[in-house]
Amino acid sequence: MFSSFSYPKEVLWGPTLSNSNQSGNFGKAGLFFLFGLGDNMVDFKLYANANMGYMRDNFHVIPEVGITGYVAASQLMYIFPFVESEFTPYTITPKAGISLASFVDFGFGYGFKINEKDSFKPIKGFQFSIGVNIPFNLK
């Protein structure tokens, strides 16, 4: 049943920087952990970011955690699809996209509002993002 699953031999980790557009522009900075790229049919990245944006005359920082599944990374060389979910105190955003060797991710999704932030417009709707993952321990 779990014959295609193996424990990762290596975990890549490092900073992630990105920009997303969802009800406004947000710069994102954080850390990622990528488990065993190429070892399984789906390889996982966990990350935590600080979303930073200036709206309604105020600077805001919104925490975010997410999980990405890189699909069939072991079968493809440098470009492969991914599915992703991002969670903030205000939205849940499922996404899909294309990754260039897991270093650059282009994602599209839709954010569902679960809460509203005071003195901030609602964060919901379509999202586009581009992100760069910089592994510190790449051999």
Structure in a nutshell:
By secondary structure, the chain is an all-beta fold.
Question: Can you offer a commentary on this structure?
Answer:
This protein is mainly beta. The chain has one domain. Helix content is 0%, strand content 63%. The protein has an eight-stranded antiparallel β-barrel. It is elongated, with a radius of gyration of 16 Å. The N and C termini lie far apart (32 Å). 29% of the residues are buried.
Blueprint (SSEs and pairs):
Blueprint (H helix, E strand, L loop, with lengths): L10 E11 L3 E11 L6 E14 L2 E14 L7 E9 L3 E10 L3 E10 L11 E9 L6
Antiparallel strand pairs: 1-2, 1-8, 2-3, 3-4, 4-5, 5-6, 6-7, 7-8
Search tags:
139 residues; 0% helix; eight-stranded antiparallel β-barrel; mainly beta; disordered N terminus
Which sequence of SSEs, written as H and E, runs from N to C?
EEEEEEEE
Structure summary, number of beta strands:
8
**How do the strands of the widest beta sheet line up side by side?**
1-2-3-4-5-6-7-8
> What is the SS-derived class?
mainly beta
Distance between the termini: 32 Å
Number of domains: 1
Rg from alpha-carbon coordinates: 16 Å
* Averaged pLDDT: 86
How would you characterize the largest beta sheet?
8 strands, antiparallel, barrel
Number of helices: 0
How much of the polypeptide forms β-strand, as a percent range?
over 45%
Enumerate the spans where pLDDT stays under 50 for 5 or more consecutive residues: 1-7
